[in-house]
Amino acid sequence: MKHVFGAAAVALALSAAPIALASESYPSEPLNYVIAFGPGGGNDLMSRTLVGILNQYDLYDGDISVENRDGGSGAVGFSYVKRQSGSPYFATSTSGNFLATPLVSNTDWTYADFTPVALLASDAMFLVVSSDSGIETVDQFVTAAKAGRVVVGGTGTAGPERVVASLFADAAGISFDYVPIGSGGELVTSLTSGSVSAIVANPSEVSGQIAAGNFRALAFSDAERSTVYPEIPTFREQGYDFDFSLPRGMVLPGGVDAQIQAWWVKTLQEVIKTPEWQDYLKTNSMSGNPIWGAAFGAYLKETSAEFESVLREIGAIE
Amino acid sequence: MLMDIFANLAFGLSIAVTPTSLLFLMIGAFVGMIVGLFPGFGPAAGIAVLIPMTLGLEPTVAIIMLAGIYYGSMYGGTITSILINTPGESATVASTLDGYPLAQKGRAGPALVMQAIASFIGGTIGVVLITALAPLLAEFAASFGPSEYFLIITLGLLLLTTMMGDNKFKGLISALIGFAIGTVGVDVMSGQQRYTFGSPELIGGVYFVAVAIGLFGIGELLHCIYNGLHLRPAKKLRLSFKSKEFWPTRFDYIESRFTFFRGSIIGFVAGVLPGSGATLGSIIGYSVEKKLARDPENFGKGEMRGLVAPETANNAASAGAMVPLLSLGIPGSGATAVLLGAFMMWGLQPGPLLIVNDPGFVWGLVASMYLGNVILVALSIFAIPLFVKFLDIPYRLVVPVIVLLCVIGAFAIHASIIETWILFLAGVLGFAMKLYGYSPAATVLALVLGGMAEETFLQSLIISNGTLYVFIERPVSLTLLCILIAVAVVPMCLALRRRLRRTQAQE
């Protein structure tokens, strides 16, 4: 293993000089797109769609190898990319764990160790109730929560669903019991079976049930209404002063030349115009309000701070 | 009702029986078998790797092929369980219990043929049940909340006792080792890390595949070397389709005739429930068979019914898992989750409306599963002489190949070296367990089920505000609780009655 790293370091040292001088000739090498999660998940799907579009429209002049390096909720893959510091031939996709994992465990990286390129889609959450619950607005839900005990389910203990639930409880001045439920599928049946009163869920997990009229979405956690579900109001519109969404974006290793960062911003601006990308957003119920370059860095900082304060509040970290 | 079913099926067949669909179905089935053969490289990875290759195809054809990989892997997965005692998946752990002893007794040929036939019958009964019952079953799956899951998992844990071997005390310790390993990782309720020692690789817990391959594969290998198997010349097993030893005997079929149906139905019902359906199904199938047998002492020593039961069950479960996937949009396992991702990539919105909006897709897929099972049983039986040849190779040459396969399988899980270390540690543990009569199967299954039991129990308690009434207030929970008590108490009463009779007879 040591030898491989040694060889890589030598190769990097040799290639670093020409890159710095000639960003016009970028790219001149194959790109290594690292996915820090397993095949089939949300991060994997976005990364493969992105790479597919880069190939299809010849936006990257060279081969792109895609590799899943999962483990430790993203810790392994992001650490691998972080160690490629300075190389413009590595890229990876961010998602919720990009912020959460360094907060809850000892990783050798944080979001600040990467060069931000773009927030491509935001993955925000719905507050969902069963249609036969009789609850039609967030206000009615809040009244119910004040009158009696309500239980809210969401995937994961310290994940984004928990953050949305906590921020909502604070904003509405109510309290409820939060149940972490393993996967998206079990989350849906926890509501269909009447085990919980409401769930905080990713739109793609509940869109089928909403379309069939079994579930009702009360509010959306992003700052703006979803481009896919424009009829669902945000929490903020209904007088609950918070918003939270997950960064589905693209980053490069830290210390990459500003010109390379600009090259990628320009390229990804082409990507999001393609019909394939628009289809991806629509089928996965994601909102497409992009943020570019340094502004994306600021967004990561702010979202990470919000995450941290909620995790502290619920006692997941000290 | 019956007319509807036939109309749906005929409609589906009209879509599935086209030259392109058939070709890609065959490719999918074949790839599935190969994927199943490699321990650790499961259907989820196989499907994910092949998704990009299907981009130029029609959605229905693409999904027919990807689904073929999914249930095809259930056929291939057992081959390593039988031949080298290494289950590639938790769903085939139960198949090692009698499958491997059968191969050791020189009945590898009949065992492989029988597993193919059992898989075929299980898979086909599963598809028949989907065709007939899909709408009803969707409602059943939707009524399962955390408390129901906890009880069904507890049932699975209770039934572990039937596969622990003769010494129940050692079996219990084996299961406890599994539970202990299962506590590593992030605590589901508080988010606190348990026994991770600050290592990011352990946050996600100890993945059972590495443990299973180590306990069974490497453990068995060490045990064989300990017995000096590598010094002996290989047994020459000359098997061809014409030889009598290749085929199961008439007795095998007669003995297993009810097992086929019981295993299929149990497996299907378990498969419909999201979660660990195929694993639970194979455990329950095996233990029911052992309980019903007049000669339970033969199980675990190379009993054909002990192979048929889990094999019909895990294949029927893979069909059953299609029910919540197609009707509710709920994936029950890693592989079905990847399939769900593929659905969405093709713009198919999984959920209750899928069958209304895209009936051609749903019925085409279901019809292709009938054909896929026929292709797979033919493929498996033709390939058996090839697999059996493996046993002709002298053991000292087989050892490095198995080690290589195990290491690749463990490394492939997360492309991280820590799984390889876990594999070797588990191998040493597996050797010790085998030597002193402990049960690796109980360890692996407790590892899979223990974490789920803990999680669903705590979820139930949060929902009920800390009272246990949640398990009797809900009708489905109450029914499950009654079954659970019956399973625990009835054998005790029977044993008590027998003892009373014996003492009376002595007086």
What does this structure look like?
The complex is a heterodimer of chains A (318) and B (507). Chain A has 318 residues and is α/β, with parallel strands linked by helices. Chain A folds into two domains: 2-123 and 245-313, Bordetella uptake gene, domain 1 (D-Maltodextrin-Binding Protein, domain 2), CATH 3.40.190; 126-238, D-Maltodextrin-Binding Protein, domain 2 (3-Layer(aba) Sandwich). Chain A contains eleven helices and eleven strands. In chain A, the strands form two sheets. In chain A, strands 2-1-3-10-4-11 form a six-stranded mixed β-sheet. In chain A, strands 7-6-8-5-9 form a five-stranded mixed β-sheet. In chain A, strand 6 (151-155), helix 6 and strand 7 (177-181) form a beta-alpha-beta unit. The longest helix of chain A has 21 residues, at 293-313. Chain B has 507 residues and is mainly alpha-helical. Chain B has two domains: 2-470, no CATH class; 474-507. Helices cover 73% and strands 1% of the residues of chain B. Chain B is built from 21 helices and two strands. Chain B has helices spanning 2-16, 19-37, 43-50, 59-84, 93-104, 108-142, 146-159, 168-182, 208-226, 250-272, 277-292, 304-320, 322-328, 334-345, 354-357, 359-389, 395-414, 417-435, 440-463, 470-473, 475-506, and strands at 185-186, 193-194. In chain B, strands 1-2 form a two-stranded antiparallel ribbon. In chain B, strand 1 (185-186) and strand 2 form a beta hairpin. The longest helix of chain B has 35 residues, at 108-142. The radius of gyration of chain B is 22 Å and the shape is globular. The N and C termini of chain B lie far apart (61 Å). The chains are: A alpha/beta (318), B mainly alpha (507).
As a percent range, the share of strand residues of chain A is: 15-25%
Derived from helix and strand composition plus strand pairing, the structural class of chain A reads alpha/beta
Count of helical stretches of chain A: 11
Roughly how much helix do the residues of chain A carry, as a percent range? 40-55%
With strands numbered from the N-terminus, the spatial order across the biggest sheet of chain A is: 2-1-3-10-4-11
**Mind describing the biggest β-sheet of chain B?**
2 strands, antiparallel
Q: Could you list the spans of chain B in which at least 5 consecutive residues all have pLDDT below 50?
A: none
| Number of separate domains of chain B | 2
Q: Could you name the CATH homologous superfamily of the largest domain in chain A?
A: Bordetella uptake gene, domain 1
Percent strand of chain B equals: under 5%
Cα separation of the termini of chain B: 61 Å
Rg of chain B: 22 Å
Distance between the first and last residues' Cα of chain A:
35 Å
Rg of chain A, nearest Å? 21 Å
CA-based shape of chain A? globular
Number of strands of chain B: 2
According to CATH, what is the class of the largest domain in chain A? Alpha Beta
The biggest beta sheet of chain A is recorded as: 6 strands, mixed
Gross morphology of chain B is: globular
Unreliable runs of chain A, pLDDT <50, ≥5 residues?
A: 1-22
With strands numbered from the N-terminus, the spatial order across the biggest sheet of chain B is 1-2
